[in-house]
Specification:
The protein is α/β, with parallel strands linked by helices. It has helices at 2-13, 29-32, 38-53, 65-68, 71-87, 102-113, 130-143, 159-162, 173-186, 209-215, 233-237, 252-255, 268-285, and strands at 16-20, 59-63, 91-98, 121-124, 147-153, 195-201, 219-223, 246-250. It binds ligand LLZGTKA7. The ligand O=c1ccn([C@@H]2O[C@H](COP(=O)(O)O)[C@@H](O)[C@H]2O)c(=O)[nH]1 is lined by residues 19, 21, 63, 95, 154-156, 200, 202, 224-225, 227-229, 249-253. Keywords: Decarboxylase, Lyase, Pyrimidine biosynthesis. It catalyses: orotidine 5'-phosphate + H(+) = UMP + CO2.
């Protein structure tokens, strides 16, 4: 089961998930200029980042928006990046945040769990309902060893607009979604005690974190918001169960680490590696 593989990688290499939100403007000019197009430069940048980090991180989250923005060539870079992650024996999370009526969701599931854009996990938005938005993906979870992370409580300030709206019993919407994800997760628990049905919970709003985690004991968490968005390791530690059960994403913090080192642009991949190790150790120190 993919959750067991992720659990093992977290045990061995730590909780860091490298976010490949690779905006062309992030690439050092001396590196970018070597390639014939933006998309080819981005793929080669990703390759260097993966080569420099795969022994100290557990997975890679590829944010599709950065590739879609570059059209067909960008999607080729997206596809090649996912294939390279697989070739290195690592786990990929396609950050696609899809959610639609079931027939359309079936096509999204096929599109992101098979073929050119095949990933190990996808992020989903359950707002259109469990049966419509999530169910079509669950066939692949059961039969093809895939996993999902459903948005439960996001890391951005705007999360409060809707996710914190309370029902007549005072339960916020994000907790209701979390409870539904826990029920689904219970049907698919791996040997590690966690399910391949996971949830996205941001690192940036910690007060309710423990209460939410207590309601989602079988759910593997994808935690964005560390670093650039201000999320702290001490907050993240409250979401862990026996030190595992979550991966923590950092995108800009790792990709742009070279900007914090003198002459870093000549060795951006090693700067990314040092930041990934620093982050790994920061999280471990708070467990
Ligand atoms: O609640 C959420 C869900 C997803 N994201 C995504 O994570 C990364 C964060 O990037 P940083 O540069 O580390 O801030 C990005 O891909 C978002 O789309 C999130 O931030 N919050």
């Amino acid at each position: 089961m993919i959750a067991d593989r992720l659990f093992k990688l977290v045990e061995e290499k730590g909780h860091v998930c490298v976010g490949l939100d690779t905006d062309y403007s992030y690439l050092p000019k001396n590196f970018a200029d070597k390639f014939e197009s933006k998309a080819v430069a981005i793929y080669n940048f990703n390759k260097e980042i993966i080569d420099a980090t795969y022994d100290v991180v557990s997975c890679y989250k590829v944010q599709i928006a950065y590739y879609e923005a570059l059209g067909i060539e960008g999607m080729k870079a997206y596809s090649d990046t996912l294939k390279y992650i697989k070739q290195k024996g690592m786990i990929s999370i396609a950050d696609i945040k899809r959610g639609d009526i079931s027939k359309t969701a079936e096509m999204y599931a096929m599109g992101h769990f098979t073929g050119d854009f095949e990933a190990d996990f996808v992020t989903l938005n359950a707002y259109m309902g469990i049966n419509d938005s999530l169910e079509p993906f669950l066939k692949y979870v059961k039969e093809n060893d895939k996993g999902i992370f459903a948005l439960v409580r996001t890391s951005n300030k705007g999360a409060k607009d809707f996710q914190y709206i309370r029902d007549e019993d005072g339960v916020p919407l994000y907790e209701t979604v979390g409870e539904r994800i826990q029920l689904l997760a219970e049907e698919n628990v791996g040997k590690c005690g966690f399910s391949s049905i996971g949830a996205v919970v941001g690192a940036t709003n910690n007060e309710e974190g423990l209460a939410l985690r207590n309601k989602m004991k079988s759910v593997f968490l994808l935690i964005p918001g560390y670093g650039a968005q201000g999320g702290k390791a001490e907050d993240i530690a409250t979401y862990l169960i026996c030190g595992n059960g979550a991966v923590v994403n950092s995108s800009r913090g790792i990709l742009l680490a070279y900007k914090n080192e003198e002459n870093g642009e000549h060795d951006f991949a090693m700067c990314a590696r040092r930041e990934a190790i620093r982050m790994r150790d920061d999280i471990r120190a708070h467990i």
